[in-house]
Specification:
Number of strands: 5
Order of helices and strands: HHHHHHHEHEEHEE
Number of helices: 9
Distance between the termini: 45 Å
Strand content: 5-15%
Shape: elongated
Largest sheet: 5 strands, mixed
Radius of gyration: 40 Å
Oligomer: single chain
Helix content: 55-70%
Protein backbone atom coordinates (compact mmCIF):
# COMPACT_ATOMS: atom_id res chain seq x y z
CA UNK A 1 0.00 0.00 0.00
CA UNK A 2 1.42 3.40 -0.97
CA UNK A 3 1.78 6.35 1.40
CA UNK A 4 -1.34 8.19 0.08
CA UNK A 5 -3.41 5.03 0.62
CA UNK A 6 -2.02 4.62 4.16
CA UNK A 7 -2.91 8.22 5.01
CA UNK A 8 -6.40 7.74 3.63
CA UNK A 9 -6.83 4.51 5.62
CA UNK A 10 -5.68 6.22 8.84
CA UNK A 11 -8.07 9.14 8.32
CA UNK A 12 -10.88 6.72 7.59
CA UNK A 13 -10.13 4.71 10.73
CA UNK A 14 -10.22 7.89 12.86
CA UNK A 15 -13.73 8.77 11.72
CA UNK A 16 -14.96 5.19 11.99
CA UNK A 17 -13.60 5.13 15.56
CA UNK A 18 -15.46 8.35 16.39
CA UNK A 19 -18.69 6.97 14.90
CA UNK A 20 -18.42 4.02 17.29
CA UNK A 21 -17.24 5.76 20.46
CA UNK A 22 -20.03 8.38 20.58
CA UNK A 23 -23.08 6.03 20.57
CA UNK A 24 -21.26 3.41 22.64
CA UNK A 25 -20.42 5.96 25.34
CA UNK A 26 -24.00 7.25 25.30
CA UNK A 27 -25.56 3.80 25.63
CA UNK A 28 -23.30 2.76 28.50
CA UNK A 29 -23.74 6.03 30.41
CA UNK A 30 -27.53 5.91 30.09
CA UNK A 31 -27.57 2.23 31.07
CA UNK A 32 -25.50 2.93 34.18
CA UNK A 33 -27.70 5.87 35.13
CA UNK A 34 -30.92 3.88 34.72
CA UNK A 35 -29.55 0.97 36.72
CA UNK A 36 -28.35 3.35 39.43
CA UNK A 37 -31.81 4.92 39.69
CA UNK A 38 -33.45 1.51 39.92
CA UNK A 39 -31.34 0.20 42.80
CA UNK A 40 -30.53 3.33 44.84
CA UNK A 41 -32.36 4.37 48.03
CA UNK A 42 -32.51 8.13 47.52
CA UNK A 43 -33.23 9.00 51.11
CA UNK A 44 -30.15 7.20 52.34
CA UNK A 45 -27.84 9.52 50.43
CA UNK A 46 -26.65 12.36 52.65
CA UNK A 47 -26.63 14.83 49.75
CA UNK A 48 -29.50 17.37 49.66
CA UNK A 49 -29.10 17.98 45.91
CA UNK A 50 -29.82 14.30 45.18
CA UNK A 51 -32.66 13.98 47.69
CA UNK A 52 -34.44 17.03 46.28
CA UNK A 53 -33.77 16.55 42.54
CA UNK A 54 -35.57 13.28 41.94
CA UNK A 55 -34.79 10.56 39.40
CA UNK A 56 -35.17 12.74 36.29
CA UNK A 57 -32.75 15.38 37.40
CA UNK A 58 -30.34 12.76 38.66
CA UNK A 59 -30.47 11.04 35.27
CA UNK A 60 -29.68 14.35 33.62
CA UNK A 61 -26.85 14.93 36.02
CA UNK A 62 -25.32 11.53 35.45
CA UNK A 63 -25.66 12.10 31.71
CA UNK A 64 -23.85 15.41 31.90
CA UNK A 65 -21.23 14.24 34.37
CA UNK A 66 -20.60 10.85 32.68
CA UNK A 67 -21.26 11.24 28.99
CA UNK A 68 -19.82 14.68 28.33
CA UNK A 69 -16.43 14.09 30.03
CA UNK A 70 -16.23 10.64 28.45
CA UNK A 71 -17.06 12.07 25.04
CA UNK A 72 -14.41 14.75 25.47
CA UNK A 73 -11.91 12.05 26.40
CA UNK A 74 -12.83 9.95 23.38
CA UNK A 75 -12.81 12.91 20.98
CA UNK A 76 -9.49 14.15 22.35
CA UNK A 77 -7.90 10.98 21.04
CA UNK A 78 -8.89 11.68 17.40
CA UNK A 79 -5.98 14.02 16.50
CA UNK A 80 -3.54 11.53 18.03
CA UNK A 81 -5.34 8.41 16.83
CA UNK A 82 -2.81 5.51 16.65
CA UNK A 83 -3.96 4.02 13.36
CA UNK A 84 -0.67 2.30 12.59
CA UNK A 85 0.51 1.55 16.14
CA UNK A 86 0.52 -1.62 18.23
CA UNK A 87 -2.31 -2.47 20.60
CA UNK A 88 -0.08 -1.76 23.60
CA UNK A 89 0.34 1.85 22.52
CA UNK A 90 -3.36 2.06 21.70
CA UNK A 91 -4.31 0.94 25.21
CA UNK A 92 -1.82 3.40 26.74
CA UNK A 93 -3.41 6.26 24.80
CA UNK A 94 -6.88 5.02 25.77
CA UNK A 95 -5.82 5.03 29.43
CA UNK A 96 -4.44 8.57 29.14
CA UNK A 97 -7.64 9.81 27.49
CA UNK A 98 -9.76 8.05 30.13
CA UNK A 99 -7.70 9.64 32.89
CA UNK A 100 -8.49 13.02 31.31
CA UNK A 101 -12.18 12.13 31.44
CA UNK A 102 -11.85 11.11 35.08
CA UNK A 103 -10.28 14.43 36.04
CA UNK A 104 -12.99 16.33 34.17
CA UNK A 105 -15.86 14.42 35.74
CA UNK A 106 -14.67 14.52 39.32
CA UNK A 107 -13.68 18.17 38.96
CA UNK A 108 -17.11 19.15 37.60
CA UNK A 109 -18.96 17.20 40.30
CA UNK A 110 -16.82 18.73 43.00
CA UNK A 111 -17.51 22.21 41.65
CA UNK A 112 -21.28 21.64 41.30
CA UNK A 113 -22.10 19.55 44.38
CA UNK A 114 -19.27 20.49 46.65
CA UNK A 115 -16.99 18.53 48.97
CA UNK A 116 -19.91 16.98 50.88
CA UNK A 117 -20.81 14.82 47.90
CA UNK A 118 -17.23 13.82 47.28
CA UNK A 119 -16.80 12.18 50.69
CA UNK A 120 -18.92 9.10 50.03
CA UNK A 121 -18.88 7.99 46.39
CA UNK A 122 -15.46 9.31 45.43
CA UNK A 123 -13.97 5.80 45.00
CA UNK A 124 -16.86 4.61 42.83
CA UNK A 125 -16.79 7.85 40.82
CA UNK A 126 -13.11 7.42 40.11
CA UNK A 127 -13.58 3.81 38.98
CA UNK A 128 -16.55 4.58 36.71
CA UNK A 129 -15.00 7.78 35.41
CA UNK A 130 -11.94 5.85 34.25
CA UNK A 131 -13.17 2.44 33.13
CA UNK A 132 -16.30 3.51 31.25
CA UNK A 133 -14.38 5.75 28.80
CA UNK A 134 -11.48 3.30 28.72
CA UNK A 135 -13.77 0.42 27.75
CA UNK A 136 -15.66 2.48 25.18
CA UNK A 137 -12.47 3.84 23.60
CA UNK A 138 -10.77 0.43 23.47
CA UNK A 139 -13.80 -1.35 21.99
CA UNK A 140 -14.31 1.47 19.46
CA UNK A 141 -10.68 1.29 18.37
CA UNK A 142 -10.99 -2.47 17.93
CA UNK A 143 -14.20 -2.16 15.90
CA UNK A 144 -12.73 0.62 13.75
CA UNK A 145 -9.56 -1.38 13.08
CA UNK A 146 -11.60 -4.48 12.21
CA UNK A 147 -13.81 -2.52 9.82
CA UNK A 148 -10.83 -0.88 8.13
CA UNK A 149 -9.15 -4.28 7.76
CA UNK A 150 -12.32 -5.73 6.24
CA UNK A 151 -12.60 -2.83 3.78
CA UNK A 152 -8.91 -3.11 2.92
CA UNK A 153 -9.21 -6.88 2.41
CA UNK A 154 -12.20 -6.34 0.11
CA UNK A 155 -10.27 -3.68 -1.80
CA UNK A 156 -7.30 -5.99 -2.20
CA UNK A 157 -9.55 -8.82 -3.42
CA UNK A 158 -11.16 -6.47 -5.93
CA UNK A 159 -7.76 -5.27 -7.09
CA UNK A 160 -6.47 -8.85 -7.39
CA UNK A 161 -9.54 -9.84 -9.40
CA UNK A 162 -9.03 -6.82 -11.67
CA UNK A 163 -5.34 -7.65 -12.11
CA UNK A 164 -6.23 -11.27 -12.86
CA UNK A 165 -8.71 -10.14 -15.53
CA UNK A 166 -6.09 -7.83 -16.98
CA UNK A 167 -3.51 -10.62 -16.99
CA UNK A 168 -5.97 -12.96 -18.66
CA UNK A 169 -6.76 -10.31 -21.24
CA UNK A 170 -3.06 -9.75 -21.92
CA UNK A 171 -2.48 -13.51 -22.30
CA UNK A 172 -5.37 -13.82 -24.71
CA UNK A 173 -4.21 -10.81 -26.71
CA UNK A 174 -0.72 -12.31 -26.90
CA UNK A 175 -2.20 -15.62 -28.04
CA UNK A 176 -4.30 -13.88 -30.68
CA UNK A 177 -1.27 -11.94 -31.93
CA UNK A 178 0.65 -15.20 -32.31
CA UNK A 179 -2.31 -16.76 -34.11
CA UNK A 180 -2.50 -13.74 -36.36
CA UNK A 181 1.22 -13.93 -37.20
CA UNK A 182 1.06 -17.67 -37.93
CA UNK A 183 -2.08 -17.18 -40.01
CA UNK A 184 -0.33 -14.51 -42.07
CA UNK A 185 2.70 -16.77 -42.45
CA UNK A 186 0.52 -19.56 -43.78
CA UNK A 187 -1.39 -17.23 -46.09
CA UNK A 188 1.46 -15.10 -47.37
CA UNK A 189 4.40 -17.50 -47.46
CA UNK A 190 3.29 -21.14 -47.29
CA UNK A 191 0.55 -20.67 -49.85
CA UNK A 192 2.89 -18.67 -52.06
CA UNK A 193 5.57 -21.36 -51.89
CA UNK A 194 2.99 -24.00 -52.78
CA UNK A 195 1.89 -21.90 -55.77
CA UNK A 196 5.50 -21.57 -56.96
CA UNK A 197 6.12 -25.30 -56.48
CA UNK A 198 3.03 -26.28 -58.44
CA UNK A 199 3.94 -23.76 -61.14
CA UNK A 200 7.46 -25.17 -61.52
CA UNK A 201 6.11 -28.71 -61.76
CA UNK A 202 3.60 -27.53 -64.33
CA UNK A 203 6.03 -25.52 -66.44
CA UNK A 204 9.27 -27.50 -66.12
CA UNK A 205 8.91 -31.14 -65.12
CA UNK A 206 5.62 -31.88 -66.80
CA UNK A 207 6.82 -30.82 -70.29
CA UNK A 208 10.00 -32.84 -69.81
CA UNK A 209 8.06 -35.95 -68.92
CA UNK A 210 5.72 -35.40 -71.89
CA UNK A 211 8.67 -34.90 -74.23
CA UNK A 212 10.10 -38.24 -73.14
CA UNK A 213 6.72 -39.92 -73.63
CA UNK A 214 6.81 -40.99 -69.97
CA UNK A 215 3.07 -41.24 -69.50
CA UNK A 216 3.41 -42.65 -65.99
CA UNK A 217 5.49 -39.65 -64.90
CA UNK A 218 3.04 -37.28 -66.56
CA UNK A 219 0.09 -38.79 -64.70
CA UNK A 220 2.04 -38.77 -61.43
CA UNK A 221 3.07 -35.13 -61.86
CA UNK A 222 -0.49 -34.10 -62.65
CA UNK A 223 -1.67 -35.90 -59.53
CA UNK A 224 1.00 -34.18 -57.42
CA UNK A 225 0.07 -30.76 -58.84
CA UNK A 226 -3.60 -31.41 -58.09
CA UNK A 227 -2.73 -32.47 -54.52
CA UNK A 228 -0.70 -29.31 -54.02
CA UNK A 229 -3.58 -27.19 -55.29
CA UNK A 230 -6.01 -28.93 -52.93
CA UNK A 231 -3.56 -28.56 -50.05
CA UNK A 232 -3.16 -24.87 -50.77
CA UNK A 233 -6.80 -24.07 -51.43
CA UNK A 234 -8.34 -26.20 -48.71
CA UNK A 235 -6.03 -27.38 -45.96
CA UNK A 236 -3.69 -24.39 -45.62
CA UNK A 237 -6.49 -21.87 -46.10
CA UNK A 238 -8.68 -23.67 -43.58
CA UNK A 239 -5.84 -23.86 -41.07
CA UNK A 240 -5.08 -20.18 -41.55
CA UNK A 241 -8.72 -19.30 -41.03
CA UNK A 242 -8.97 -21.46 -37.90
CA UNK A 243 -6.05 -19.60 -36.37
CA UNK A 244 -7.27 -16.08 -37.13
CA UNK A 245 -10.38 -14.97 -39.06
CA UNK A 246 -9.79 -13.53 -42.49
CA UNK A 247 -10.78 -9.90 -42.87
CA UNK A 248 -10.37 -8.96 -39.21
CA UNK A 249 -7.94 -6.26 -40.33
CA UNK A 250 -10.57 -4.67 -42.55
CA UNK A 251 -13.36 -4.08 -40.05
CA UNK A 252 -16.10 -6.10 -38.39
CA UNK A 253 -18.57 -6.05 -41.29
CA UNK A 254 -16.06 -7.34 -43.92
CA UNK A 255 -14.87 -10.01 -41.48
CA UNK A 256 -18.49 -11.03 -40.88
CA UNK A 257 -19.13 -11.24 -44.62
CA UNK A 258 -16.09 -13.45 -45.17
CA UNK A 259 -17.12 -15.69 -42.27
CA UNK A 260 -20.60 -16.13 -43.78
CA UNK A 261 -19.10 -16.86 -47.22
CA UNK A 262 -17.47 -19.97 -45.77
CA UNK A 263 -20.80 -21.48 -44.74
CA UNK A 264 -21.57 -24.64 -46.80
CA UNK A 265 -23.82 -23.86 -49.79
CA UNK A 266 -26.35 -26.46 -48.64
CA UNK A 267 -27.22 -24.11 -45.76
CA UNK A 268 -29.53 -21.15 -46.38
CA UNK A 269 -28.14 -17.98 -44.81
CA UNK A 270 -29.99 -14.71 -44.22
CA UNK A 271 -27.30 -12.20 -43.21
CA UNK A 272 -27.94 -8.50 -42.65
CA UNK A 273 -26.42 -5.53 -40.87
CA UNK A 274 -28.90 -3.39 -38.96
CA UNK A 275 -29.15 0.21 -40.11
CA UNK A 276 -27.67 1.68 -36.93
CA UNK A 277 -24.56 -0.49 -37.35
CA UNK A 278 -24.05 0.09 -41.08
CA UNK A 279 -21.18 2.53 -40.60
CA UNK A 280 -19.69 0.93 -37.53
CA UNK A 281 -15.99 -0.02 -37.36
CA UNK A 282 -14.85 0.76 -40.88
CA UNK A 283 -11.29 0.79 -42.18
CA UNK A 284 -11.22 4.58 -42.11
CA UNK A 285 -12.96 4.88 -38.74
CA UNK A 286 -12.14 1.76 -36.69
CA UNK A 287 -13.99 1.42 -33.37
CA UNK A 288 -12.74 -2.05 -32.40
CA UNK A 289 -9.21 -3.38 -32.24
CA UNK A 290 -8.25 -6.37 -34.37
CA UNK A 291 -8.28 -8.84 -31.49
CA UNK A 292 -11.80 -7.79 -30.44
CA UNK A 293 -13.05 -8.38 -33.99
CA UNK A 294 -11.33 -11.75 -34.00
CA UNK A 295 -13.00 -12.71 -30.70
CA UNK A 296 -16.45 -11.85 -32.07
CA UNK A 297 -15.93 -13.66 -35.39
CA UNK A 298 -14.45 -16.77 -33.75
CA UNK A 299 -17.48 -16.97 -31.45
CA UNK A 300 -19.73 -16.57 -34.50
CA UNK A 301 -17.88 -19.40 -36.29
CA UNK A 302 -18.39 -21.66 -33.29
CA UNK A 303 -22.11 -20.83 -33.18
CA UNK A 304 -22.46 -21.67 -36.89
CA UNK A 305 -20.54 -24.92 -36.44
CA UNK A 306 -22.75 -25.95 -33.50
CA UNK A 307 -25.91 -25.15 -35.49
CA UNK A 308 -24.76 -27.48 -38.28
CA UNK A 309 -23.20 -30.30 -36.25
CA UNK A 310 -25.46 -30.49 -33.19
CA UNK A 311 -28.66 -28.70 -34.17
CA UNK A 312 -29.10 -30.10 -37.69
CA UNK A 313 -29.96 -26.62 -38.96
CA UNK A 314 -30.84 -25.89 -42.58
CA UNK A 315 -31.36 -22.13 -42.23
CA UNK A 316 -29.33 -19.46 -40.46
CA UNK A 317 -30.30 -15.89 -39.68
CA UNK A 318 -27.31 -13.70 -38.82
CA UNK A 319 -27.55 -10.10 -37.68
CA UNK A 320 -25.05 -7.42 -36.69
CA UNK A 321 -26.33 -4.42 -34.74
CA UNK A 322 -25.79 -1.81 -32.08
CA UNK A 323 -27.78 -1.37 -28.88
CA UNK A 324 -27.59 1.01 -25.92
CA UNK A 325 -26.42 4.58 -25.89
CA UNK A 326 -23.21 6.47 -25.17
CA UNK A 327 -21.07 4.66 -22.56
CA UNK A 328 -23.48 1.67 -22.49
CA UNK A 329 -23.49 1.15 -26.25
CA UNK A 330 -22.41 -2.30 -27.45
CA UNK A 331 -21.99 -4.13 -30.74
CA UNK A 332 -23.67 -7.52 -31.06
CA UNK A 333 -23.90 -10.46 -33.44
CA UNK A 334 -26.78 -12.94 -33.35
CA UNK A 335 -27.08 -16.36 -34.99
CA UNK A 336 -30.55 -17.93 -35.11
CA UNK A 337 -31.02 -21.41 -36.59
CA UNK A 338 -34.01 -23.61 -37.36
CA UNK A 339 -32.43 -26.78 -35.98
CA UNK A 340 -33.15 -28.64 -32.76
CA UNK A 341 -33.91 -26.01 -30.07
CA UNK A 342 -31.76 -25.99 -26.95
CA UNK A 343 -33.21 -26.82 -23.54
CA UNK A 344 -33.87 -24.55 -20.56
CA UNK A 345 -30.34 -24.77 -19.20
CA UNK A 346 -28.17 -25.33 -22.26
CA UNK A 347 -24.54 -26.37 -21.87
CA UNK A 348 -22.16 -23.98 -23.58
CA UNK A 349 -19.59 -26.69 -24.30
CA UNK A 350 -17.42 -25.35 -27.15
CA UNK A 351 -18.76 -21.84 -26.59
CA UNK A 352 -17.26 -21.67 -23.08
CA UNK A 353 -13.78 -20.36 -24.07
CA UNK A 354 -15.44 -17.79 -26.33
CA UNK A 355 -17.63 -16.64 -23.45
CA UNK A 356 -14.54 -16.26 -21.26
CA UNK A 357 -12.76 -14.15 -23.88
CA UNK A 358 -15.81 -11.95 -24.36
CA UNK A 359 -16.39 -11.54 -20.62
CA UNK A 360 -12.75 -10.57 -20.08
CA UNK A 361 -13.33 -7.69 -22.52
CA UNK A 362 -16.51 -6.52 -20.82
CA UNK A 363 -18.84 -8.36 -23.21
CA UNK A 364 -20.79 -11.57 -22.99
CA UNK A 365 -22.43 -14.54 -24.71
CA UNK A 366 -26.02 -15.76 -24.58
CA UNK A 367 -27.27 -19.20 -25.62
CA UNK A 368 -31.04 -19.68 -25.51
CA UNK A 369 -34.21 -19.27 -27.55
CA UNK A 370 -35.48 -16.34 -29.60
CA UNK A 371 -39.10 -15.17 -29.61
CA UNK A 372 -39.96 -17.87 -32.19
CA UNK A 373 -38.57 -20.69 -30.07
CA UNK A 374 -35.48 -21.15 -32.24
CA UNK A 375 -31.95 -21.50 -30.91
CA UNK A 376 -30.13 -18.20 -30.67
CA UNK A 377 -26.51 -17.39 -29.93
CA UNK A 378 -25.81 -13.76 -29.19
CA UNK A 379 -22.35 -12.31 -28.59
CA UNK A 380 -21.47 -8.71 -27.78
CA UNK A 381 -18.68 -6.35 -26.80
CA UNK A 382 -18.71 -2.78 -25.44
CA UNK A 383 -18.62 -0.10 -28.14
CA UNK A 384 -18.91 3.26 -26.37
CA UNK A 385 -19.65 6.17 -28.62
CA UNK A 386 -16.46 8.04 -29.58
CA UNK A 387 -16.01 11.46 -28.02
CA UNK A 388 -16.96 14.31 -30.36
CA UNK A 389 -14.08 16.04 -32.04
CA UNK A 390 -13.17 19.40 -30.50
CA UNK A 391 -14.48 22.40 -32.37
CA UNK A 392 -11.84 24.07 -34.49
CA UNK A 393 -11.03 27.71 -34.14
Amino acid sequence: MGEPQRSSARASERWIYLSYVVPLMAVICVSLAMEWIAVTEWASWPVPQIQESGAGMYLLGVWCFSFVPGLIAGAALVPFYPAGESWTWRLVLAAIASLLGTVLRVGVEFAVWGPMYMVGPIGLELILSFFVPFGCISVSMYLAKSQVRAVEAERQLTEMAFQERQSQLERENAELRIRRDVSRLLHDQVQQRLVFTASRLQSELLPMAAANDDLLAVDLLKEIIADIDRLREHDVRQLSQSLFPTGADLGLAPALGLAVSRVPPSLSVDMAIEQEASGFDTVLEPELDVTSRAVLIKALDEAITNAIKHGGATKLKIRMGLEGEKADRRIYLTVDNDGQPVGENPVLSGLTPHQERLTARGGGLFLGLNDRGQTRVKVWLPAPEPAPAPASG
